[in-house]
Amino acid sequence: MKNNKIFFLLLIFILLQSNTLSTIRYVKAGNPTPVAPYTSWATAADSIWKALRISVNGDTVFLGNGIYTETDTLPYGVSLIGSGIDSCIWDLSKSSIDPFRAALIMDNYSVVEGIHFKGTSITRGYGLRAWYADKSLIKNCKFSNCYWGASVQATDFTNNVFENMNIGIISLSRISGGASYIADNRFINCYTSINIDPAPYKNYIRNNYFYADNVSNPTFIEHISGGQPEINNNAFILARANNSSQKFIDAHNGDLIQNNVFITLTNKSTPFILTEDPIISKNNHFEGLMDAHHLYFQAIGPQLVIRNNNYWNTRLLYYPSYNNPYRDTELQQDPMFIDSTDFHLQKYSPLIDRGDSSVLDKDGSISDIGVYGGPLGESYVYIDKAPRAPVGLAVTLNADTVLLKWRKNTESDIRKYQIYTDSTTNVTTDTNRYLTSVNDTLLKIPKSYFS
Predict the structure, then answer these.
(1) Cα angle at 45 between 44 and 48, to 5 degrees?
(2) Which segments of 119-178 are extended strands (E)?
(3) What is the distance, to the nearest Å, from the Cα of residue 129 to the centroid of all Cα atoms in its chain?
(4) Quick one: CA dihedral 247, 205, 169, 116, positive or negative?
């Protein structure tokens, strides 16, 4: 027993010693006075490679402002922290020579933060590879103007920006376990934002913002097969497209697509969601002249669940026509967002508490439909905004009447319209100028009323 105690105390001592051996190193582009082991800014290495080649598990390497042009491997358990995406630039010109040569290769339990991996063209450059890296993290980075941003497996992404890319993230299958969390990132004008190759592990795609404007054939998420990713609480916006072959999500194999917002400003007869297999699509909002769900014949069956979604000005809910057993849970109403860029719901929105009853909001109520509903959404106060001003006013003068007609508001909290008259351009809406109120969008006024 005494020897066991000695061994236990020795083990604790070794663990404590290993923690105290972690080293912080520094790299500063062009530093004229590099001195190993590079433990101060004055003696910082003048290249990333010099600092990484002597770094071991637990070490942290800080990158100063500047432009770095090398290709390196990040060792197991080492953190590489840049000074920020505006001033710490990793030039991908070397990796563009070989399209499958990454500027940086990651190992297990490593971290990359605060670096801008920058190329010159979407046909050249490869930022980061983590094919065999489990439980690694990429955060607060930017990838722009290159062919591949990051090709990874079981690696997490938080608060990164992917802009003007051929493919932002490629999630590959190299190990049989683990999970990849892709959360709170921004994907701007990528041909494919996230590509999920056959993967036995889970991909959790949460709280991201996807945007494309005038991009050829944009696909926000392309799932090849395997893994059954969970796609929750994301906003997908397509402003313009220069052809008709885009789709928001190419889904497969039981994907869970829940509490997202899909909006297009185009009028293309192409799908928000295209699937060859049964999927679960619920608590989503679809808006704009595209087909919400394009279903291959093999996708239609008992495992296909499409319910509690809202469709606003969409071309079709399902293509081809589908006798959805959950059809009575589906809505087609104005969502009453705060505005065109803020997808919080107003106080009287018909999407409040209209999601699948098995999914709860953070406050314990039934999930709202949309990006802020569900357990990954937000608890917030619903703002009671005034209705939008009526539009489309037309005035017709007849023999004995003046006919007023306008376009009906679509908000669910419209109760009536009040009409005021005045002899000046700037009407004052007080009781002296009040004429009448109507529930309709048509009003006939006797011509004799007017002087």
Answers:
(1) 130
(2) 126-130, 136-139, 142-152, 155-158, 161-171
(3) 22
(4) positive
Q: Which residues contact 343 (CB under 8 A, 6 or more apart)?
A: 235, 261, 285, 335, 337, 370, 371, 372
Angle at CA of residue 27, ends 138 and 48, nearest 5°:
65
Residue 222: phi and psi, rounded to 5, are: -115, 110
C-alpha distances in angstroms, 406 versus 263, 316, 438?
26, 27, 12
- Please list, in sequence order, all residues whose beta carbon lies within 8 angstroms of the beta carbon of residue 358, skipping any fewer than 6 positions away: none
Angle, CA of 78, 80 and 81, to the nearest 5°: 140
CB-hemisphere CA count at 13 Å for 58?
Answer: 9
Average pLDDT over residues 377-406: 92
C-alpha to C-alpha distance for 300 and 40, rounded to whole angstroms: 62
pLDDT of residue 132: 80
Contact in structure between 54 and 82 (CB atoms under 8 Å): no
Q: How far is CA 335 from the centre of its chain?
A: 19
16 vs 446, residue with greater confidence = 446
Q: Give Cα separations from 190 to 183, 247, 266, 271 (angstroms).
A: 17, 13, 17, 18
Q: Name 281's bridge partners.
A: 257, 306
Mean per-residue pLDDT of the chain = 90
The number of angstroms, rounded, from the C-alpha of 392 to the middle of its chain's C-alpha atoms is 35
pLDDT of residue 14 exceeding 60: no
Question: Residue 313 and residue 176: Cα distance in Å, rounded?
Answer: 43
Q: Are 62 and 27 in contact (CB under 8 A)?
A: yes
For 399-433, b/e burial (b = at least 16 CB within 10 A) is eeeeebebeebebeeeeebeeeeeeeeeeeeeeee
